[in-house]
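Honest question from a wet-lab person: if I give you the sequences of every part of a complex, can you actually get the arrangement of the whole thing, not just the pieces? Trying it with mine:
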Amino acid sequence: KAGVTQTPRYLIKTRGQQVTLSCSPISGHRSVSWYQQTPGQGLQFLFEYFSETQRNKGNFPGRFSGRQFSNSRSEMNVSTLELGDSALYLCASSLATTSSSYEQYFGPGTRLTVT
Amino acid sequence: AQTVTQSQPEMSVQEAETVTLSCTYDTSESDYYLFWYKQPPSRQMILVIRQEAYKQQNATENRFSVNFQKAAKSFSLKISDSQLGDAAMYFCAYLNFGNEKLTFGTGTRLTIIP
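Yes, you can. This is the full assembly:
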């Protein structure tokens, strides 16, 4: 079974621009979560989608948004980019069931650099 | 809010030896899950082991085992017979029952000495 895929792997943007990152979960996984990883703040939860609905949201400004499609693929969008948005963005998918212990499987990440 | 603390920023171990990474957490919940993830320099986060809070038995996965002390809110990872491929950042993570939000610790960088 293929793992979680994320595109693109690397991205360079300029302050003020917007960006869209994509995540394809493991086949059969309906939950997709997004995390931001930076050297200063570590790993922080952005949001989680399940069956096209946002179920959980972290403490990030409204510039960060996401969505999920009927095939469980997810996108996250960051508008009006700031230098501090430079980070590794990780996507994780899960069956989101008790029997799976809510295990999350991560993609390779998208490295976003804002200049 | 839940918090996860990893007090060892860096650890090193001789190849073939055993090393234990520490993790403590704080929660008022009774049903939750705990995980150890490994992030090698390639960046891909890999699930190492999980523990359900309702299970008293410590989880084991090959050379990896945990010491789960629920009352003390402690969740340490023991790596036996350390191998060069074990070199990575190790993150302890907490998840509430029925919730997909993982709360991570700050990580421990493990170096394997040949």
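Two things worth pointing out. Chain A touches chain B at residues 31, 33, 35, 42-43, 45, 48, 50, 55-56, 58, 88, 90, 92, 94, 96, 98, 101-109 (CB under 8 Å). The two ends of chain A are 37 Å apart (CA to CA).
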